[in-house]
Amino acid sequence: MASHDVNNQDLKTSTLKYDAVKTKVRNYAVGLLAKRDYATEELQSKLARKFSEELQSTGQDIFADSVAWLIELGYLNDAKYCAMFIRSSVAKGRGRRRIEQELKQKRLPQTLVADALAQCQVDWYEHAYECLRRKFKTLPEDAKEKAKVIRYLQYRGFLPDEIFCALDQWQESLEQEC
């Protein structure tokens, strides 16, 4: 009989500890999401780093429970995060390739990224041209300066076709001004 009471007491203590850690993890996650949006994998890894000791004592499912709870409440949504990230990156002058790469680093599903990029309705050629006009005021005079312009747009994440189209459009617009 005493053995049965000890087991019940251990179970109660374990359950109380699990509930306390779960509440702590959820509160921390909500606090993070109040500051900015996160991708699901990004938030899970942040929680795992913060609560690594608690993870060992309570088990892995505490993070899955917390993430499922956040998704159920609508606080965590990878599709919404992906669309927001794309809009923000376009506003910062980034191209499609760089945006894809950054979203891949955040471990978002490739199909979700491809769908979000298809829905964003950005004319990448026009976007490359606008980035070019913002950064450079005059046409490159020699091959060295042209290479600098090309490297700038490549770093921003534009495809070669978009870059050369933007250069041609830039040259045409400057010739029309003269």
Automatic annotation (TrEMBL):
It holds the Pfam family RecX_HTH2. Its main location: cytoplasm. One of its GO terms (cellular component) is cytoplasm. GO terms for biological process: regulation of DNA repair. Keywords: Cytoplasm. Belongs to the RecX family. This is Regulatory protein RecX. It comes from Halioxenophilus aromaticivorans.
